[in-house]
Amino acid sequence: GSPPTIEYFTEDVDTANFEVPSGERFRMSCYVRGHPQARVQWLYEGQVLPLRDDRVRETFHRVLRDKRAPHLFTSGSTLEVVGFNHRDNGEYRCIAVNQAGNATRAVFTVVQGRKCFET
Q: Phi and psi dihedrals of 11, rounded to 5?
């Protein structure tokens, strides 16, 4: 088998802090390749998502055989947080796991808002 690789993660954000407008919907996508098929899991601050929160939704994407490498499978998952607010700030991590290994990518989110400066 081959360990999973993350082919695409949230528009390939490489920024440490990703700003999300307050009250907006925030989507993160994670597409992975591997053999056997990799399982995708989301963590928020180290805890498995979705937590029991109606605002957090996960959608799994169809598993496809890779035409360029038929022994590999591509699968994915999108995590969506509705009504993003300061309680949602933190690290979101996508983990892809199969019997051959694992891969992980993370993004740290902060809600956009007015910055207050003390004088």
A: 55, 30
- Predicted structure pTM score: 0.81
Residue with tokens 């983990």: 95
pLDDT tens figures, 22-79: 999 988 889 998 888 888 999 999 999 877 788 999 998 877 777 777 777 788 899 9
**SS3 sequence of the chain:** CEEEEEEEEHHHCCCCEEEEECCCCEEEEEEEEEECCCEEEEEECCEECCCCCCCEEEEEEEEEECCCCCCCEEEEEEEEECCCCHHHCEEEEEEEEECCEEEEEEEEEEEECCCCCCC
Q: Which of 22, 7, 21 is nearest to 105 (CA)?
A: 7
